[in-house]
């Protein structure tokens, strides 16, 4: 999990640094029409969706308090279905992925649980990943045996499309 969080944080920092050097002054919160997700009954839009470090990462640069979302693979995915695993207790293997959604304002970090499917398509070299009613939960501080405590919190649905 520590590696996944480091990758997510590094990916976010690199993406923000790379894509924030624009002279365009667009402060509308509309985000990308092709990348959105719903978690804990709230829908978010991604203003930037990139694939970096084996992760399809949706970032909302317009509203800093909104969470980012990442779908972690073990390599660049090809079209097909990928089974979700608990990234915080397992390593993502072939034909597997894990979803993590977090932000820096103290909101919960949501992670996918085992089971469920992410459908990946590839068009003109760009990845699109769709998921529906994926069970998610929050992580709390580590317990006595050094693992995270997991609390189920509902479902997550959405589509991320690489720009």
Kindly, what is the distance between the CA atoms of the first and last residues, rounded to a whole number of angstroms? 27 Å
Overall 3D form? globular
The biggest sheet amounts to:
5 strands, mixed, barrel
The tally of structural domains comes to: 1
Radius of gyration over C-alpha positions, nearest whole angstrom: 15 Å
Q: Can you tell me the residue ranges where pLDDT is under 50 for at least 5 consecutive residues?
A: 4-32
Q: Helix/strand/pairing class, anyone?
A: mainly beta
Order of helices and strands: HEEEEEEEEEEE
What are the salient characteristics of this protein?
single chain, 163 residues, mainly beta, five-stranded mixed β-barrel
Written overview of the protein:
The chain has 163 residues and is mainly beta. 11% of the residues lie in helices and 47% in strands. The protein has one domain. It has a 5-stranded mixed β-barrel with strand order 6-7-8-10-9. A hairpin with a 2-residue loop joins β3 and β4.
Which helices and strands appear, and what pairs or packs with what?
Blueprint: H1 2-19, E1 36-39, E2 42-45, E3 48-52, E4 55-59, E5 68-72, E6 80-84, E7 96-102, E8 110-112, E9 117-123, E10 126-142, E11 148-161
Parallel strand pairs: 6-7
Antiparallel strand pairs: 1-2, 1-11, 3-4, 4-5, 5-7, 6-9, 7-8, 8-10, 9-10, 10-11
Summarize the structure.
The protein is mostly beta strands and 163 residues long. Helices cover 11% and strands 47% of the residues.
């Amino acid at each position: 999990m520590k590696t996944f969080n480091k990758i997510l944080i590094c990916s976010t920092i690199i993406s923000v640094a790379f894509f924030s050097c624009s002279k365009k002054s667009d402060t509308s919160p509309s985000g990308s029409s092709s990348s959105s997700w719903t978690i804990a009954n709230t829908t978010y839009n991604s203003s930037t969706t990139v694939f970096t470090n084996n992760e399809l990462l949706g970032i909302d640069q317009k509203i800093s308090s909104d969470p980012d979302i990442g779908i972690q693979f073990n390599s660049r995915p090809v079209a097909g279905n990928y089974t979700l695993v608990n990234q915080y207790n397992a390593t993502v293997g072939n034909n597997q992925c894990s979803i993590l959604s977090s932000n820096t304002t103290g909101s919960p970090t949501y992670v996918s649980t085992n089971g469920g499917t992410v459908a990946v398509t590839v068009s003109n070299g760009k990845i699109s990943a769709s998921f529906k009613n994926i069970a998610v939960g929050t992580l709390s501080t580590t317990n006595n045996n050094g693992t995270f405590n997991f609390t189920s919190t509902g479902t997550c649905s959405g589509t991320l499309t690489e720009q």
